[in-house]
Amino acid sequence: MAKIDLVRRAEIGREKRARTRAQILEAGALLLAERPPEALTVDAVVEAAGVAKGTFYYHFLSISELAAAVGVMLGESFDEMLTPAKLELSDPVARLVFMSRQFLQKAISDQVWARLVVQSSQSPTEFGRGIREHLKADLAEAIAQGRMVVKDVDLAADIVIGMLLQIMRGIIERGAPRDLIREALDAVLRALGAAETGFDGLDDVLDGQPGEGATP
Amino acid sequence: MAKIDLVRRAEIGREKRARTRAQILEAGALLLAERPPEALTVDAVVEAAGVAKGTFYYHFLSISELAAAVGVMLGESFDEMLTPAKLELSDPVARLVFMSRQFLQKAISDQVWARLVVQSSQSPTEFGRGIREHLKADLAEAIAQGRMVVKDVDLAADIVIGMLLQIMRGIIERGAPRDLIREALDAVLRALGAAETGFDGLDDVLDGQPGEGATP
DNA sequence: TTTCATGTTGACTGTATAGTCGATCCGACG
DNA sequence: CGTCGGATCGACTATACAGTCAACATGAAA
């Protein structure tokens, strides 16, 4: 019995498999942007993805697993979006502002993404918790440096998350008037009581200019 | 054919009818506190309410009508809660603070109510729009008086609503630490840029003391 | 006691959805 | 070009749910 190269075999379908899975994932994301996971049916997903029902179950165990996968996808888009901040900005308040700015800009340029974020913020997913922890780390650092009036990290996180999420809802429903982002960022800093304790480069971050060390 | 007193007849069952309807309504509110209306089934409602399925359809046309009725109920609880502010407080910022304070206090003392409010805030119901308009009226007055740094009424409303809702979520998930309400109210005022432009009695309202005119 | 409007019941029908499974397709490899 | 394993398909069963309806319960009035 000639042993066939199983490893090779395993690779064969991988591209097709990945493509189909991506189709289902994208369709799921699109649908989850406009309804909660509890209201999402397998039939709706497979129709939107253009695949057969069995194919869905070949890739996912259930709708909730699909929802989790979409959550992971969202989380990755966040990491991708926030990585530059981690690398370039050493100041926690600057990182906070940068993050908030990226957040709102993405919401303005990608409505589906915005809706998806808003929907995902309801049921506490793994993704949501990750964002929150990331945010809390920055806030704790800022508090430790005596940069903020708000001392309770959880309260500070709720303030930031609540403002950004609701402003995102506003963007979805009513669009983004001129200077919205700048005014929103100012309001976030004021709410935390971090407005007057900035560092030199903060205005650049607020305006979306290249930050510290980027200008030779 | 002796005309029977139809008006009287109509009154006969009213008490029973009202009681049953209230049962269904309460069960619906309880269930809608923990899942979105799209995920609520008639069977679940009638089981929770302890009535037969036909009874549900005798009182309501559909789940969405029940959800609307629950929304109206919530709206009434708001009116009830906010009426004293309208009457006693002439200052728009004081009314804003009073409203926010009542809001958070109620959330702390009534978890089901809090969950229901959070859930209802997702799908824009009639109730949600009413609250927003009410809030925007106060904010517009405050802006007109030059009391706030934030000039965009919609942005201001999103800031307040976002903060309060997310803080409510925090209360639901992690409880309310000491001084949470006071710190939250301070943060709201700072966010709007209304912290330094207060009037004399504002501290009383912030602390939940009887407001202006109540001390003879 | 009888009558009758109002309200309640739960069995019933039809439909939508979940989840399964053997048939089929596809493409690499010998 | 035939074989074979991984991927896809869609018909099928079982179940959950929506919505209906004829029968029954209740209690005030005659």
Element-by-element helix/strand order of chain A: HHHHHHHHHHH
Helix content of chain A: over 70%
Q: Globular, elongated, flat, extended or rod-shaped: what is the shape of chain A?
A: elongated
Strand content of chain A: under 5%
Classify the secondary structure makeup of chain A into a structural class.
mainly alpha
The biggest sheet of chain A amounts to:
none
Q: Helical stretch count of chain A?
A: 11
Oligomeric state of the chains present here: homodimer
Distance between the termini of chain A: 66 Å
The low-confidence runs of chain A, each spanning 5 or more residues with pLDDT under 50, are 1-6, 211-216
Major protein interface: A-B, 35 and 35 residues
| Average pLDDT level of chain A | 88
Determine Rg of chain A (CA atoms, Å): 21 Å
What's the β-strand tally of chain A? 0
